[in-house]
Amino acid sequence: SVNGEWRSSKVSTGTTIIAVTYDGGVVIGSDSRASMGGEYVSSRVINKVVQVHDKIFCCMAGSLADAQAVTNAVIHQLSFHSMQMGEPPLVQSAASIMRSFCYNHRDELSAGFIVAGWDSKRGPQVFQVSLGGMVLEQEFTIAGSGSTYIYGYVDAKFKPGMTREECLTFTTNALSLAMDRDNVSGGVVHLAIVTEKEAEKQLIPGNKLPVIQSLE
Amino acid sequence: MQGSISDHGTSKGLKMGTTIIAIEFDGGVVLGSDSRVSAGASVVNRVMNKLSPLHDKIYCALSGSAADAQTIAEIVNYQLDVHSVEVGEDPLVRSAATLVKNISYKYKEELSAHLIVGGWDKKEGGQVFATLNGLITRQPFAVGGSGSSYIYGFVDAEYRRRMTRQECQEFVINSLTLAMNRDGSSGGVAYLVTIDSEGVEEKCVLGNELPRFYDRDVVEPAKTEKV
């Protein structure tokens, strides 16, 4: 707007984030836009997929300040926990630590997360830790403002036990569709693919995203 | 295009949360809607047909405030009757959409309803017009209502040009089902109307006949064994 109302609003990640399990691993993805007041894009390349441990990643949505603060606290606590146990942490532990922050400070925080990764006890897992501190384990999950537009798509297209390639296509398509419709999601697609062997990061620039058919 | 956000219905009247969709194919159109009318948290009518005839081969899909939408449809129905007598033949779909648009635009501050107009005429064949907030635009397909937000990704990905009549009907039923599964203000049964040069086919798909999508936590009942 002419008055630059965005200057007085906080930075939020109007966002689309997604995590999907497949046969042997999990794909985690996000867009890359940080916006202020729904008008100004304060960063077009931020990475909302944060590595909290070797094989565990976390996606942020909501207020960027809150999300970063909580994520940093989780990284710290998780590394300590993992040292105490003497082994790599469970994905469920990461989700639990995330949840206790979100729940205990629920009146002050306004951020939601997806925690996903691989551990030796239960393999690939996805947890949604939402605003007030609820934890829900699912085969796949979507979150953020852009997720509204792709509920129909992911409900229709998800199948359990996909291959790695099918899962990557599913995730990239879903993000692309959401980025096309949500004005506070956009930019590039950040991906992380976690399997028993390794955690791999990928970036898909805007011009390499799948093209959605136009309404001609 | 967003539909109305549901209010506490008792003070502001009935809202049709709703999911509506219309798509054209070569030779006609398919219109579809859910059947839920809510007043706040209460479902006041679970079998409401939101596909309303404006003329023999022109229908509209209603969403938003129930009273506003129904009134607009009735007024336009009357105006089209007069118009078709004056011109001596069946009205164009574009004429119907324009009449809807005129009311939506003139009273845009007071009204809160979105009508999608779809039909067949001999000049242009099957057509779909969106009339949100007083604009008029012809589109290959249109979605509306609160439930439509959840299916934008799906319809963007699945729509292809030149689908057949059958494929369009499946597209509409799938889209409605997905939206009804996610939107609290949409639900019930799915109503379908298919219009082409031959006539109008009305169909109602009951809740248990709607397509099922994968859900890990749904357990199919075990078949009982006979002793």
Write the layout of secondary structure elements.
The complex is a heterodimer of chains A (216) and B (227).
Chain A lengths: L10 E3 L3 E6 L2 E6 L3 E3 L3 E4 L5 E5 L2 E8 H22 L5 H14 L6 E9 L3 E7 L5 E4 L1 E4 L7 H7 L6 H18 L7 E7 L3 E6 L12
Antiparallel strand pairs in A: 1-4, 1-7, 2-3, 2-11, 3-12, 4-5, 6-7, 7-8, 8-9, 9-10, 12-13
Helix pairs in contact in A: 1-2
Chain B lengths: L8 H4 L2 E2 L3 E6 L2 E6 L3 E3 L2 E4 L5 E5 L2 E8 H22 L5 H14 L6 E9 L3 E6 L6 E3 L1 E4 L7 H7 L6 H18 L7 E7 L3 E6 L22
Antiparallel strand pairs in B: 1-7, 2-3, 2-11, 3-12, 4-5, 6-7, 7-8, 8-9, 9-10, 12-13
Helix pairs in contact in B: 2-3
Describe this structure in words.
The complex is a heterodimer of chains A (216) and B (227). In chain A, 28% of the residues lie in helices and 33% in strands. Chain A has helices at residues 64-85, 91-104, 151-157, 164-181, and strands spanning 11-13, 17-22, 25-30, 34-36, 40-43, 49-53, 56-63, 111-119, 123-129, 135-138, 140-143, 189-195, 199-204. The mean pLDDT of chain A is 92. Chain A is globular. With 227 residues, chain B is an alpha+beta fold. Chain B starts with 8 loop residues before the first helix and ends in a 22-residue tail after the last strand. Chains A and B meet through helix 3 and helix 4 of A and helix 4 and helix 5 of B. Chain A: InterPro entries: Ntn_hydrolases_N, Pept_T1A_subB, Proteasome_bsu_CS, Proteasome_sua/b, Proteasome_suB-type. Chain A: It comes from Triplophysa rosa (Cave loach).
